[in-house]
Amino acid sequence: MRGRTHKYGAVKTVLDGITFDSKAEASRYAELRFMEKAGAITALKLQPVFPIVIGGKKVCAYRADFSYRAAGVEVVEDVKGFETPVFRLKKKLVEASYPGTTIAVVKS
Questions:
Q1: What is the CATH number of domain 13-107?
Q2: Whole-prediction pTM value?
Q3: Per-residue pLDDT for 5 more than 60?
Q4: CA 41, CA 75: separation in Å to the nearest integer?
């Protein structure tokens, strides 16, 4: 029996003992770790979660690929081959619910 394939063709990749959903995500992690070691960024986090609460009720949660601080600004990143309609909606919800937060999309 063959392992399940990702519906978008992504290949799970292990780097530094961490399993990433795609080679592109693992590659971006390697770049960010290099930048962190060089002092260009700080506070690198993997898979930060942003709960979306509207009117006191939890609607959903958005899990980004990475967040970090660069030049005193918090940066949230998601590595994508393309943007799905669900991603675009959650991006808008996060940016509306967390003023000052912008999600940068890193194309793979």
A1: 3.40.1350.10
A2: 0.81
A3: no
A4: 10
DSSP of 25-58 = HHHHHHHHHHHHHTTS-EEEEES-EEEEEETTEE
- Contact 68/75 with Cβ under 8 angstroms? yes
* Domain extents in the chain: 13-107
- How many Cα atoms sit within 13 Å of 32 on the Cβ side? 25
Q: Mapping DSSP to helix (H, G, I), strand (E, B) and coil, where does residue 95 land? A: helix
Query: 28 and 53 in contact (C-beta within 8 Å)?
Result: no
Within 8 A by CB and 6+ apart from 65, the residues are 25, 28, 46, 47, 77, 78, 79
pLDDT in tens, 72-91: 888 999 998 888 899 999 99
